[in-house]
Structure formats: structure tokens, C-alpha cells
Amino acid sequence: MELINKSDIQARIDAMKNQDLYIHLEMTTGAYAAHFDSNKHPASIFITNTKIRFGHGAISGEGPYRVGLKMELGWIYAEGLTHYEEQETERLIMAGHDGQGKLVVALQLSKQPF
Amino acid sequence: MTQSHKQILVVLPHPDDEAFGASGSLAIHVYNGAKVTYACLTLGQMGRNMGVPPFANRVTLPAIRLEELKASCKAIGIEDLRLLGFHDKMIEFEEPQLLDGKINELIQELRPSLIITFYPGYSVHPDHDATGAAVVRVVAAMPKEERPIVQCLAFAKNTVEDIGRPDIIVDVRGFLKNKLDSIRAHRSQFQAPELMGKNNLSDKELEDRFGMERFWTYRFND
Description:
The complex is a heterodimer. Chain A is mostly beta strands. Chain A has one domain: Distorted Sandwich (Protein Yojf, Chain: A), CATH 2.70.180. Chain A has helices spanning 6-15, 33-36; strands at 2-3, 21-28, 44-52, 54-60, 65-71, 75-81, 83-84, 92-97, 103-110. In chain A, the strands form 2 sheets. Chain A has a 6-stranded antiparallel sheet with strand order 1-7-8-9-2-3, with helices on one face. In chain A, strand 7 (83-84) and strand 8 form a beta hairpin. Chain A is globular, with a radius of gyration of 14 Å. Chain A starts with a strand and ends with a strand. Chain B has a single domain, classed as LmbE-like (Rossmann fold). Chain B has helices spanning 17-31, 61-76, 96-110, 126-140, 159-163, 176-185, 203-210, and strands at 7-12, 35-40, 80-83, 114-118, 149-153, 168-171, 212-217. A 7-stranded mixed sheet of chain B has the order 3-2-1-4-5-7-6, with helices on both faces. The model of chain B has no long low-confidence stretch (mean pLDDT 94).
């Protein structure tokens, strides 16, 4: 994974507009969050290989970054993104890693299922 | 404190954005005869406060916040509320032509002499910054002599260091009831005991905390 290059991400988002895509969207505090700090409220979500299509999307912020994808009837949003897979040509794989390198958030798009 | 205005346009993204920073000043403007139009971009449908104990949920929150917003407008004396229908938290990602177009339509229709919004880059929440940035883009594109005054709210930690002190400081102590009623109207969002009737603050304490409002007049480059 490389640190996010904002203009590269924007170009990749633009190239994926108006087509059926599979999404993996995930966020997690880690299952041990409350074990390490009883004030924490562990929570996590993911949705994987769900078909989506967006007509407009953007990356915003100065890092960690935010991405919003506008669909016909709703939005997809992720905050806290730091890294992406630069070598991928067909898929857009982005993630946010915390200070220890652990994954906190992921947003991935692909024409083929993950 | 302020020159009198016939028509004022308030452009803020969330129901309750008006309450702490601008409701007193707006009540004064209304008292002085101004017509105030409040363009609220979203219904704050992604808010995390659901009341204590929670009485709202993700599905009911937008309708609840709309009613709270109407009650706040009533407390201030705002009679023209426009809901622009954007999605909470997504303003920064909106197509600029769509966002700017809606704001421009309102400016052309109402021809306000004053717009109140957030200072782009100094308003902490991405929706706040994106809303202020859109207003500034639209007004900057207008012929210089037709531009309304743009007064901005700002509360980022580095505000004064970067853009200086607010040039407009409004004493709203005479309109504290309007302001507190505006804040209290947003009952799903604000549960501070001193505002909700418990641990009643003295009049002096309320005046100290809520008696002044601060705005930065936006300076256009040309």
C-alpha cells in the first residue's frame, strides 16, 4: 500500500463512474477495543460484494482523506482513508490505517467480485 | 451594531447551526425590520445525538430535526425557511455546479444585502467549510458592485491567528430569550442541563456565556 495520492484517486474515481461495480466497505474499532480501554465501545461493520453504481464522486481533505460517491438514490462515504494500492489497474483499493498500522476503514471498488 | 438590511440570506448546512452563533443577531435583524431567509442545506440526518435517553432513530431523525428547526426559526422570527435537500455530511462531495446553482438562484431571487454563512476553512466540520466555500464562489462570481456583504461564523482553533479577530461583535443580551429558545428548540441535539432547565444559570451567567456573537466579514480578493 502507498500513501494516498489525491489526484490519482480522483482520476480513478472518475474512471469508475456510471458502471456496475462491486463494493467492499468496512469500518472497525477492533474487537479488542474494550479489552484495552473500557471506555471504548467496540463496533464494526462491513458490506462486501454488493453491487453499486455512482454518477459522481470525489476525494476531499488533506489527509487522512474522505471519499463520497453519489448514487442515484443515496451516498457512499468513508472517512479516514490513508493508503491505496497503486499497482492495481482494474480495482480501486483504499484503506485507512491507524498509528500502529492497523486497518480502521476500507473502501474498495471493482468490476469483478472480491 | 449593524447597518439595517431589508433582506438577509442565511446559508448553513445543518438545523442548529444557527442557534449558538447567529440566532441572537438574526433576532435583532428581524426586530430592525429585516426579512430573513434561511437556506438550510440538509436535515442533519447523519447527526449522532438522538436525545437523552434516545427518542430519535436514523429513520425518524430528519423529520424530528425539521420540526426543531421550524421551532428555532419561530423563536428567532425567521418566516422564510428553505430546505435545499442536500444530504448531511456530503456537501463537500456535491457537484459544485449543482450546489452553487441552488445558492445562486436564491441570491438572484432575493437579492439580499447580507449573507450569513460559515468561513471556509475555519469552521471545523467539512459541511460547514464546503457551504461557506460555495457561498464565496457564487458571490465572488457576481459583479463587484452587486455583491452582498458576506459575514461568516468561524470557530477553528487557528482562526484568529490566521484571519484575525472578528470585525463584527454583536451584543445580543437584549435578545437572549430568542437565542435560548432557538437553542432549546433543538432538543434532540442539545441536552446541556443549564439549557434544559436543570441547574438554572443566573441571568448574569447566561449573558456571559451567550451574550455576544462574532462574525468575520469575508474580504474578496478584488
